[in-house]
Amino acid sequence: xxxxxxxxxxxxxxxxxxxxxxxxxxxxxxxxxxxxxxxxxxxxxxxxxxxxxxxxxxxxxxxxxxxxxxxxxxxxxxxxxxxxxxxxxxxxxxxxxxxxxxxxxxxxxxxxxxxxxxxxxxxxxxxxxxxxxxxxxxxxxxxxxxxxxxxxxxxxxxxxxxxxxxxxxxxxxxxxxxxxxxxxxxxxxxxxxxxxxxxxxxxxxxxxxxxxxxxxxxxxxxxxxxxxxxxxxxxxxxxxxxxxxxxxxxxxxxxxxxxxxxxxxxxxxxxxxxxxxxxxxxxxxx
Length: 286
Prior knowledge:
The protein has about 290 residues and is α/β, with parallel strands linked by helices.
C-alpha cells in the first residue's frame, strides 16, 4: 500500500488535467497490488475548480472522498450512487466495487484482502492530484477503512467509519447469523453469486486480519469519525463504543437516533454532515 506521493509535505492543490477537468464521471479499472481488476468511478464533483481556463491557478479545494461500500454492494448500486451524489457537493468522489462485487474481478474475502482494493482507489485519488483524501466506509467497508489507515500511516487525511463492526466473527444478531451462513456454506455462496452478484471466497482467513478495534487504536494522528445508528440490526451500540474507546481522544463518535444499518439507512442530511466534518477535519490535519 502506498503512503501517497512522497508523503504529506509533497501534497499540493489539485489542478485541472485531462481527467479532472471534464466535470463528468470517468469509469476505469484499477489494479491492486495482488493483480485484481477493480471497477471504479471518479466524479470531479460540483465545486472543485475555478471557472478560469488558466490551469496555473489552484483549485477551490482539493478534497476527494474515497467511498468503501458494504458487503454485497457495488459501484452501480443506487445507495452507493446516492452517497456519492451527496458527497460530491463537498469535493471529488472515487467510488469502486470491492473484489468479488459487481464488475470487479476476484472473490470477496469479506474484509481481509479488500484493504488492497481501497489502497488502489486511494492511489488513484492521489494520482489525479488530490492533496486531501478522506476514506468513508460503510459496514464491511467501515472495517476496511479502519485497517487501511492503521496499516498505511499517512495515506489518508481523515477516516469515516459508518456502521462498522468492532470485532470479527460476531453472531449476536439474526442478520449476522444469516451473513455467516451466506459466507461459510456452499449453498450460501451460491445465493451470494446468483442472488446478490457477490462472488465469495471459500477459504477461511489465514491469518486473521487486524481487528477493527485494534486498527482504530493505530489511526492517530489522522482524524477519525465513527458513526452508528441506534436501530442498527447488525451491530449493537457496544461496537461503535468499543471503536471510539480504542481510538481515544482523536476520534469523534456520532450515535444517530433511529438510524439503521449502513448506506441504505444513512439519510442525505447525515451524509452532508459527514461531508462537512471531513472537509474541516482534513483541512485542520493538513
